[in-house]
Each structure stands twice: as C-alpha cells, then as structure tokens.
Amino acid sequence: MDTRALHTIGYGLYIVCSKKGKRFNGQVANTVTQVTAEPPTIGVIINKGNLTHEFIQESRVFTASVLAKDTPLAFIGHFGFKSGRETDKLKGLNYILGETGAPIVTDHALAFLDIGPLAEGHALLIPKAHYETLDRMPRDAAAAMLKHLPALGRAVQAAVGCEGFNVLQNNGRVAHQVVPHVHFHIIPRNAGDEFHFNWPAGSYPPGRAERIAADIRAKIA
Questions:
Q1: Which domain holds residue 59?
Q2: Residue 183 catalytic?
Q3: What is the Cα–Cα distance from 90 to 104, expressed in whole angstroms?
Q4: Are the CB atoms for 62 and 102 separated by under 8 Å?
Q5: 123-125 β-sheet, strand order
Q6: Is residue 210 in some structural domain?
Q7: Distance (Å, whole) CA 103 – CA 166
Q8: Burial (CB count within 10 angstroms: exposed 0-12, middle 13-18, buried 19+), residue 34
C-alpha cells in the first residue's frame, strides 16, 4: 500500500477528556464517530498507552470537544505533546463538568455532543471562552460563536438526514439551564417525533405590547 494515500483521509480535531476519581485528563484525538443510532452512541480511538485511555477504562465515561479550524497550534500541542502523568493539562484552561462529571474543554471549542440527546445528532454550539449566560457575553464573542450556527445546523442535517431542526438556548436554572456555560442546542426534528414544546401562548391587553417593546428598545445597550 502507498502510505501517502493515508494523508488524503479527512479528519476532525477533538479534545477527548475523562476522569479517574478526582483527577482529570485530556488529549487530542482525530477520530470521533457515531457507533449506533439507538441508543445514540459515539466512539473514540485512543492509544492504549495514553493516560486518557486509562481514565476511560476506569470511569467508563469521556467527553469530546470539537475544535475550531483556527485553534492555535500551541493549544493543540498542549494536549498532544505532553503527558498527563507529568502535568495537569487542564490547569488554567476553561472547562465545565458534564453530566458524568468528566471535563468538557471550552477553549477553542465549537461544539460537543450532548450525553442526553433529545434526538440522534443532538449537538451543542459553545463559545471558546467561558460565559455563564448569554447576557454576560460581549457582542464580539457572541458574533464569533454564532457565525458557526448555520454551518453546524447544515452539518447535523446532512449527518442524520433530519427534516428540520430546532435551535434552543437556556439562561438560568429557572429556564432549565443545567450546565453553567453558554450553549446552543441543535435538535434534529422529524415528522411524528416525540419531542414537544410546552408553549402556552397568551395575549397582551391593548397597548401593553407596545409599551413593553418601547421599554426593551430603550434598554438595549
């Protein structure tokens, strides 16, 4: 086989993290793939000699953050050229803890797969830096994140063949925000699926809507 052909194979770039007790570790990976549709399951390819593999074997959990194309080489090298046996790779970096307790790296990440999907292909778009809620994001940071939303929506549709998708974003526990980091849900939809919104639409008394709209316009910074 001409091994030069291997260089033409396309890959993504991901930070795969896991935990072992109270310790965290992560590494660069180029292969994250869907294994089954029902239940929705993803798999990663990890070198058996790596510490992250040891952590996954122990805890049986992992997370995968999708890196942006413009991720600095120094950041990639931090996870790819160092061993977690010698250094704490997550020290000083932005990350959140997923539902399994394993860390999800948010620096330079575009998205990560939801561990509790509402549908096959349910993905999340996240900012590179940490902001707990959308109202705390500077407008430039919000613009840098949201410019990727159309492409991610198209990619989800192409990957799972859904008829449409919802974009959902929650702020604060009262709004059902569980993870304290801004994220947008891209939820694939098909006719007859089981996902439904509870949307008890109401109405305004005469003049109330106009007053509220004027008040909102006045408070936009």
A1: 11-195
A2: yes
A3: 10
A4: yes
A5: 23-29, 14-20, 63-67, 109-113, 123-125, 184-189, 164-168
A6: no
A7: 26
A8: middle
Provide the CATH number for the domain around residue 59. 2.30.110.10
DSSP string computed for 43-93: EE---TTSHHHHHHHHH---EEEEEPTT--HHHHHHHHSS-TTTS-TTTTS
Q: Which pLDDT does position 5 carry in this prediction?
A: 64
pTM attached to this predicted model: 0.61
pLDDT tens figures, 85-135: 999 999 988 888 877 788 888 888 777 765 566 788 888 888 877 888 999
What's phi and psi for 52, nearest 5 deg? -60, -40
* 165 part of a folded domain: yes
137 confidence band (pLDDT: 50, 70, 90)? very high
**Domains held by the chain: number:** 1
Does some domain include residue 169? yes
Token pair listed for 55: 């952590």
**Predicted pLDDT of residue 89:** 93
Could you say which of 78, 183, 185, 196 is catalytic?
A: 183
In a domain, 102, yes or no: yes
